[in-house]
Automatic annotation (TrEMBL):
<comment type="function">
    <text>Transfers an acetyl group from acetyl-CoA to L-homoserine, forming acetyl-L-homoserine.</text>
</comment>
<comment type="subunit">
    <text>Homodimer.</text>
</comment>
<feature type="active site" description="Nucleophile">
    <location>
        <position position="145"/>
    </location>
</feature>
<keyword id="KW-0486">Methionine biosynthesis</keyword>
<feature type="binding site">
    <location>
        <position position="215"/>
    </location>
    <ligand>
        <name>substrate</name>
    </ligand>
</feature>
<keyword id="KW-0028">Amino-acid biosynthesis</keyword>
<comment type="pathway">
    <text>Amino-acid biosynthesis; L-methionine biosynthesis via de novo pathway; O-acetyl-L-homoserine from L-homoserine: step 1/1.</text>
</comment>
<feature type="active site">
    <location>
        <position position="316"/>
    </location>
</feature>
<comment type="similarity">
    <text>Belongs to the AB hydrolase superfamily. MetX family.</text>
</comment>
<keyword id="KW-0963">Cytoplasm</keyword>
<dbReference type="GO" id="GO:0004414">
    <property type="term" value="F:homoserine O-acetyltransferase activity"/>
</dbReference>
<dbReference type="InterPro" id="IPR008220">
    <property type="entry name" value="HAT_MetX-like"/>
</dbReference>
<dbReference type="InterPro" id="IPR000073">
    <property type="entry name" value="AB_hydrolase_1"/>
</dbReference>
<keyword id="KW-0808">Transferase</keyword>
<protein>
    <recommendedName>
        <fullName>Homoserine O-acetyltransferase</fullName>
        <ecNumber>2.3.1.31</ecNumber>
    </recommendedName>
</protein>
<feature type="active site">
    <location>
        <position position="349"/>
    </location>
</feature>
<dbReference type="InterPro" id="IPR029058">
    <property type="entry name" value="AB_hydrolase_fold"/>
</dbReference>
Length: 368
C-alpha cells in the first residue's frame, strides 16, 4: 500500500475559539487509496493525543509501523481498495501541522506565544483541509480517544460533512480526574529546567525528562490493572550480573513495570514536542460539547443527519462506558440513528489500538 504524504497551506486565516486567528496554517496529512470520481468514498481518521498522520505507514522518526496499521490497508477493516483514507496532524501538534514549534510572523518559533486551541479549533482545521481537497461530505469520520472528540465535534459543528460517525473509547467532556492526570504531566514538563518557559527551541537541551514523566503518567491511564498484572505482575528486572532487586534506590528500575514505563517515556521524547503536549492536553481538558451548545448535549446533535456508532471497552477506566452511554442518550434524545456496544478486552483504554477482533467486526459492519 502506497501512502501519500502532503501538506496543505490554508489560503485564509483560521479563526479560533479564543477570538484570535492563525495565519498561514499548514495542515500535514497522509492519504491512502484512490478517491472516487464522485468523492463519495472518503474516510477521515482523527488521531489521539500522541498520534499523528502516520496511521498506516512507517513513522519517519521512529521507523515503527503506523499507529493503526492493523486497521488500515488493502482488505483490512478500513479497506483502502475501497476507501480513500485521510489522516491529518492536528493544529497544535508537531509533525508538520502548525503548532508551537512553527515559526511566527517574526521568524521565531511561537513557543508559548502560540494561541490557546480547542478541540473545535482542531476540527475547523480538518474541515478546512476537506475544503481544500474538494470533499463536501465524508463517507465516515472515525476517531478513538481524542480522535473521537474531534469526530463528535465535527458531527456537532459541521453536521453536513459526514454521513457516518464512528467514535471509539471517547467522551463528550473531560472529567475532573482526566484534567488532574493531565495537570500532573504538564507540571512535570514545566518543572524541567530545560523547559525555559517554553523557549527551548534551538537550544542544546529540550525538556525531555519532564516530557518523559508526563508520558509515563499518562500511559498508566491507558492501561488496565488486569493488563499490567498479566504483563508484569511484581516481577523484578533481570540484571546483567544475574541478580534481581534493588541495588541503588531511585536510579535502577527494580520492577519490570518500571522499566516498561521508562522505555515508553524515553521513546516518546524522540517524536513529540513538549509545548505541543501542553497545548493539546489543555485543549482536551477544555472539551465540553454540551457547554458549547447551551448546556444540553442533545442540542449539539440537533441538526445532524448522520448515522452514529459508539464503542466502549469494559476495562477502560479513563473513558469508561458511562461516558459513551451519556453520548448515546443525547443522540437518542436528538433523534439521531445510533448503535452502541461495550466490548470486553483486557487492555484498558488502549484496547482500540490493539488486537480486539470484536472491534474489527463492529467497525466493518458499520462501514459497510
Amino acid at each position: 500500500m502506497t501512502a501519500t504524504s502532503k501538506s496543505l497551506r490554508l489560503n485564509e486565516d483560521l479563526p479560533l475559539d479564543s477570538g484570535q486567528v492563525l495565519s498561514g496554517v499548514e495542515i500535514a496529512y497522509e492519504t491512502y487509496g484512490e478517491l472516487a470520481a464522485d468523492k463519495s468514498n472518503a474516510i477521515l481518521i482523527c488521531h489521539a493525543l500522541t498520534g499523528d498522520q502516520y496511521v498506516a505507514s512507517n513513522h519517519p522518526i521512529t521507523g515503527k509501523p503506523g499507529w493503526w496499521e492493523r486497521m488500515v490497508g488493502p482488505g483490512k477493516v478500513i479497506d483502502t481498495d475501497r476507501f480513500h483514507v485521510i489522516c491529518a496532524n492536528v493544529i497544535g501538534s508537531c509533525m508538520g501541522s502548525t503548532g508551537p514549534a512553527s515559526l511566527a510572523s517574526d521568524g521565531q518559533p511561537y513557543a508559548m506565544r502560540f494561541p490557546v486551541i480547542t478541540i473545535r479549533d482542531m476540527t475547523r482545521g480538518l474541515v478546512a483541509l476537506l475544503d481544500g481537497l474538494g470533499i463536501a461530505q465524508l463517507h465516515t469520520v472515525i476517531g478513538g480517544s481524542m480522535g473521537g472528540m474531534q469526530a463528535l465535534s465535527l458531527a456537532a459543528n459541521f453536521p453536513e460533512r459526514a454521513a457516518r460517525v464512528l467514535v471509539i473509547a471517547s467522551t463528550a467532556r473531560h472529567s475532573a480526574q482526566n484534567i488532574a492526570f493531565h495537570e500532573v504531566g504538564r507540571q512535570a514538563i514545566m518543572a524541567d529546567p530545560n523547559w525555559r518557559d517554553g523557549n527551548y527551541y534551538g537550544e542544546d537541551c529540550a525538556p525531555d525528562n519532564g516530557l518523559a514523566v508526563a508520558r509515563m503518567a499518562a500511559h498508566i491511564t491507558y492501561l488496565s490493572e488486569e493488563g499490567l498484572t498479566e504483563k508484569f505482575g511484581r516481577r523484578l528486572q533481570d540484571r546483567p550480573d544475574g541478580t534481581k532487586g534493588a541495588k541503588s534506590f531511585g536510579f535502577d528500575a527494580d520492577f519490570q513495570v518500571e522499566s516498561y514505563l521508562r522505555y515508553q517515556g524515553s521513546g516518546f521524547t524522540q517524536r513529540f514536542d513538549a509545548n505541543s503536549y501542553l497545548y493539546i492536553t489543555r485543549a482536551m481538558d477544555y472539551f465540553d460539547l454540551a457547554e458549547e451548545h447551551g448546556g444540553l448535549l442533545a442540542d449539539a446533535f440537533a441538526g445532524s443527519k448522520a448515522r452514529f456508532c459508539l464503542v466502549s471497552f469494559d476495562s477502560d477506566w479513563l473513558y469508561p462506558t458511562a461516558e459513551s452511554r451519556h453520548i448515546v442518550h443525547a443522540l437518542n434524545a436528538a433523534g439521531a440513528p445510533v448503535s452502541f456496544v461495550e466490548l470486553s478486552a483486557p487492555f484498558g483504554h488502549d484496547s482500540f489500538l490493539l488486537d480486539v477482533p470484536a472491534l474489527d467486526r463492529v467497525m466493518k459492519g458499520f462501514l459497510e
